[in-house]
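pinging the channel bc i need a second pair of eyes. not urgent but kinda urgent?? the chain im working w is below, pasted from the shared doc
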Amino acid sequence: MTTHRTVAPPRPGSDDGGAHVVGAATARCPLASHVFEMAMEPMDVHVAQARRTTATVLKQWSLPEAPTADARLVVSELVSNAIIHGSGDVRLRLRHDGHELRIRVTDDSTEPARRRRASAASLGGRGLHLVACLSLRWGVADGGRTTYAVIPTLTEVPPCRRTTQSSTDPTC
């Protein structure tokens, strides 16, 4: 097994705003599997940082643009939910196994993420609906602490995605 860093950690003296790379990418032959993890303080500024970091990592992994765009939006929504509704530091984990990208966002709250029905006038409440529309499947794990989504990275098109409200997804 070969391990290599996918995104350089913040340079000394740079303003990382409380976000830290806590993992590295891992490649195993013959099937490549990539993993990236980062942790961040629950601050709104980290939503954009997580989105940009996700784009950079997925570009380094040579993922096509369509699933990368979907992943950026899913990461934005899941990190936003963890910051707004969760507690403690927020941890993002990306894992690509060659045909699926698994996104996990974890915080310290045991209150599971739930889809809400937003009215036409509501400014919020649509995030998990977007996650469900962009994912093959999504759900919660770890006693409500983790919300995950699985995005196909091959040319397959998800069949208006299954939604799993509560699950343990051991492959994430």
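so The first strand starts at residue 2 and ends at 4. and Residues 1-16, 22-31, 161-172 have pLDDT under 50 and may be disordered. — does that match what u expected or am i reading it wrong
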